[in-house]
Design brief:
Helices cover 8% and strands 46% of the residues. By secondary structure, it is mainly β. The strands form two sheets. The chain has a six-stranded antiparallel β-barrel with strand order 1-2-5-4-3-6. Strands 10-9-8-7-12-11 form a six-stranded mixed sheet. Strand 9 and strand 10 form a beta hairpin. The longest helix has 5 residues. The relative contact order is 0.15.
Length: 167
């Protein structure tokens, strides 16, 4: 991710390279979204931090199969294993009211109803039943809480939390 404090300059991970596919430089990708459309919408991506042009991407069953410019053989493709495939946050579509990107929540201050600091959002997880915010509280302890109205609300540039839900 970019090191700037401006959230619009961050990078968003869309996939991770799972390994090489064949001998011509294609890679298997583990997608972090529902389809390859999120990748194919971007011609300029960052793979392992290096800017690369996406030459092609196709559905590969449980994974996607992609080819990036400059990756021409299996050993070059295999060297990318474990690399994140990212885009600049600023290239993502604008959000509707009430929508958010996970990356925009990370780093936000968590406060109680009176505005007293509780901690910081360090991660957003989703195990299938909705988003969970990981809060690192003052003192280092962490807690996962549901990101839903009344429990944790986005209030401008911070998260207002009902302390009853903190473990």
């Amino acid at each position: 991710m970019a090191q700037s404090g401006d959230r619009s300059e961050r990078r968003i991970a869309l996939a991770a390279v799972a390994g090489a596919q064949g001998v011509k430089g294609e890679v298997r990708l583990k997608l972090f979204s529902d389809s390859i459309d999120s990748l194919s919408a971007h011609k300029k991506l960052y793979v392992g931090g290096a800017e690369r042009r996406l030459v092609s991407v196709r559905d590969g069953g449980k994974t996607a199969v992609a080819r990036f410019e400059g990756i021409a053989d299996r050993s070059a493709a295999e060297a990318l294993r474990g690399s994140l495939v990212e885009v600049d946050r600023s290239t993502l579509p604008p959000l509707e009211e009430g929508e958010y990107y996970h990356v925009d929540l990370i780093g936000l201050e968590a406060v109680d109803a009176n505005g007293n600091r509780i901690g910081t959002v360090t991660a957003v997880e989703n195990y299938g039943a909705g988003d969970l915010l990981e809060i690192e509280m003052e003192g280092g302890k962490t807690s996962l809480i549901p990101f839903k109205p009344g429990t944790a609300d986005l209030d401008r540039d911070r998260i207002r939390i009902d302390p009853e839900f903190l473990a």
